[in-house]
Amino acid sequence: MAGQIDPEDRIFEKLQRRDDLAQEEKTRLVNERERAVYEKQQRRLSQLVEANTTLPCTISSVRVLGASHTRPAFLKRIVDPLLSANKDRPYTLSEALRETQYAVDKLYRHDIFSERPSISINRPDQTDPSSTPTDIDVYISAREKSRLTFKTGTEAGNTEGSAFTNLTLRNIFGGAESLDLNASVGTRTRSAYQARFESPILSDPDVRAEIGGLASSTQKAWASHEEIQEGGWAKLRWMGLGGKSEFSYTGLWRQVTGMAEKASPTVRGDAGDSVKSSITYSLTNDRRDYPLLPQSGYFTKSSVELAGWGPLQGDVSFLKTEVETQGAVPVPLPGVEGRSGVSFTTGFRAGLLYPLPSGFSSKPEASRINDRFQLGGPTDVRGFRLGGLGPRDGNDAVGGDVYAAGSANLLMPIPRLGPDKPFRIQAFVNGGRLLALKQASDGKEKQPDVSNRISSTIAELRNGLPSIAAGVGLVYAHPVARFELNFSLPLVIRKGEDARKGLQFGLGVSML
Questions:
Q1: pLDDT tens digits for 118-155?
Q2: Distance of alpha carbon 169 from alpha carbon 9, whole angstroms
Q3: CB 70: neighbour CB atoms within 10 A?
Q4: What is the secondary structure of 149-212 as a DSSP string?
Q5: Contact 451, 470 (CB under 8 A)
Q6: For residues 209 and 294, what is the distance between their CA atoms, to the nearest angstrom?
Q7: Which end of the chain has fewer CB atoms < 10 Å from its terminal CB, N or C?
């Protein structure tokens, strides 16, 4: 009869259910047993250290367990320095453990293990004639991450949201190498495709090399055009006492295209193709407790880019420098123990684009719209539209060669939510100026003339008040980006600038 279940099927379902329950119980018991063994090892290690911190010891061997896809030669560079045979004096037990923890930290920072590797210590077989009474064997137990990761989702950048698809191949050749393939579409970037290969140098997680390529198309509505880019780069990154350094070479073919019907003569004059060949050095030092919503600490970043000069060639030639700083201090409140959640932050950014001769010529090249600075918008000078400050040609923001901007923000927890939630009320005042270099009167650029015009333009930054806006708003620090909804009131506006009074929404990872 239709719809009836055979008794044998019921028996099979019951047996299958029992098998599933038995498997779950078996898995639970295995996990509990592994956890008990780990806790026992940690207790034994703790007791051993407490009783023998100054005991002389020698590390006779180091073994890394669970790293089946990682090259032995890669691991050898990290663990070999631990061996006492490579030391000029014996360890104390506390020193041996400290050095082992340092090696484990290096392993973990390569991002190829799903959790921090654990350490266990045993004494070698005393019947072994090659061992000594002070010998210990170190075992490092690790669990590797999946070598393939595929993700789709949304992400946020400065003034832009996008949807992406990402494929990551990890530990490709067993030396913590990674290949990252990414495709995205966004509110401004119509399409972007990127491939990036990265590898540590000599097993050091603080020294990494990278090569990559991209193809993108970005709509720049504030200047009535679309920019297409294709090219590649090579980078070397390392950590030092001053922070994170990066040296890179970039080669890009750019095209200014897709002119709007009312595009200005300046934008149309820069339409077409250009090739940028540049080297860049940047230094970043981030000591903030939480970069998206700092309560204390400071951040500094400086960069220098040299394009088109001498052997670099290309169609554009300039020296471009930028500096950025931010500082945050907690504000104590009477009667509130610990942190009140109230903080005061200040930020400053400045940049200079210095025209240079292209290749080995002597005539400096005028800057192009896709190399100049833009200023204004919810991520830097709030209270102005995107690209709302600086030189304009009609309705187009054509950018400038020198700028400076600053901001002061007071952030307070929202009542009833408390200081531990990532929500804040902010009051701010910010301002800035963006200026362009004037062309030589005779149309013939000379290097001394450029230097004089740079000096006079920098002096002009101090001539009168900058464009200023103030306001209040709500801030939410999501793990991937900072969201702001502000009510802004422009206070100082120069002729032609595009201010925005009222509500303004901001989304970004780096806010002034």
A1: 888 887 776 677 777 888 889 999 999 999 999 887 77
A2: 44
A3: 21
A4: EEEEEEEEETTEEEEEEEEEEESTTSSS-EEEEEEEEESSEEEEEEEEEEEEETTEEEEEEEEE
A5: no
A6: 30
A7: N
Distance CA 467, CA 405 (A): 9
Q: Edge-to-edge strands of the sheet including 118-122? A: 91-92, 56-65, 135-141, 118-122
**In the beta sheet, which residues pair with residue 150?**
167
Give strand pairing partners of 428: 409, 471
**138 beta partners:** 62, 121
How far is 326 from 510, CA to CA, in rounded Å? Answer: 10
Structure tokens at 124: 């070698």
Q: How far is CA 2 from CA 5, 9, 292, in A?
A: 9, 15, 63
Structure tokens at 115: 């959790």
Percentage helix, strand, coil, to 5, in the chain? Answer: 20, 45, 35
Summarised one tens digit per residue, pLDDT across range 83-131 is 877 777 788 888 888 889 999 999 999 999 988 898 888 877 766 777 7
